[in-house]
Amino acid sequence: MAVKSCVVMLIPLALLLLAGSSLAVAQLEIGYYSKTCPSVEAIVREEMQKIISAAPSLTGPLLRLHFHDCFVRGCDASVLLNSTEGNLAERDAKPNKSLRGFSSVDRVKAKLEAACPNTVSCADVLTLMARDAVVLAKGPFWPVALGRRDGKVSSAVEAADQLPPAFGDIPLLTKIFASKNLDLKDLVVLSGAHTLGTAHCPSYADRLYNFSSAYSADPSLDSEYADRLRTRCKSLDDKAMLSEMDPGSYKTFDTSYYRHVAKRRGLFQSDAALLTDATTREYVQRIATGKFDDVFFKDFSESMIKMGNVGVLTGAEGEIRKKCYIVN
């Protein structure tokens, strides 16, 4: 028991060290708002508890918002900006059409503006909300270094070019992740976020119908699972139907996603691709045993910290938006 408690104590310390490891350059800090808005995390947590209590299915979408933000221009809240006359913003790019949770971000930001006007960035709000979404879904907690600033530019073209596609194979996904200083382990670990949430039919329907000249369905997809998906997704044009990315557990952050992938029941081609590379396949199969949940939780925390540091604006860069959907 003594050894076990020692390990539990060391994990938060390791995460704290990681959270601060690359931050000298980024100028992010644990406790960044300790003097200017000391209750920032408590305010976000309290509001998130209310939001998720009322709509538990929002945990996945709020986590996804943070992912889609960080992969385009870094974690600068550019995904939250509305389109304007003459500029189509990230949120209106084709890969982002199904994003949800914007009003929840606005709600949390309004609470923070009331408590600490012109202080906490939307980029930090979104990062904290993603962490708390995971915690409220029974996932791990990790320390979030703060001090991000908000970007002033948002481009739908950049979003379409830079977001990891659902049809991606390992070479393509590895290239996209590497461009954000994320490696192959981060790829397979962060794919585990698919334990939360649902997906619209068009994001996976091409695996079910007219896949290729040789196959009507994707041969990497378990045939029984493909039959089940067809009962929900009637055609390539079915835009209304949703499917759980982690069937039976899509509101709970756990390792069952990896068990589905190991059985060739991942929803996306990008999920199936994890079985085509020796390194990612080994990780999937290990976590799928259900014996290493603590390892996955620790790995996910570390990868989220890394992703949360991608391309951040700090110091005098960017701005602190008053409202997350429009520049000041």
From TrEMBL:
It is an enzyme of class 1 (oxidoreductase). The active site is at 68 (proton acceptor). Its cofactor is Ca(2+); heme b. GO terms for biological process: hydrogen peroxide catabolic process; response to oxidative stress. Heme b binds at residue 194. One of its GO terms (molecular function) is heme binding. Its EC number is 1.11.1.7. Residues 1-24 form the signal peptide. Keywords: Calcium, Disulfide bond, Glycoprotein, Heme, Hydrogen peroxide, Iron, Metal-binding, Oxidoreductase, Peroxidase, Secreted, Signal. It is found in: Secreted. SUPFAM superfamilies: Heme-dependent peroxidases (SSF48113). Disulfide bonds join 37-116, 70-75, 122-324, 201-233. It catalyses: 2 a phenolic donor + H2O2 = 2 a phenolic radical donor + 2 H2O. Transmembrane segments: none annotated. Gene3D superfamilies: 1.10.520.10, Peroxidase, domain 2 (1.10.420.10). Belongs to the peroxidase family. Classical plant (class III) peroxidase subfamily. Belongs to the peroxidase family. Ascorbate peroxidase subfamily. This is Peroxidase. The lineage of its organism: Eukaryota, Viridiplantae, Streptophyta, Embryophyta, Tracheophyta.
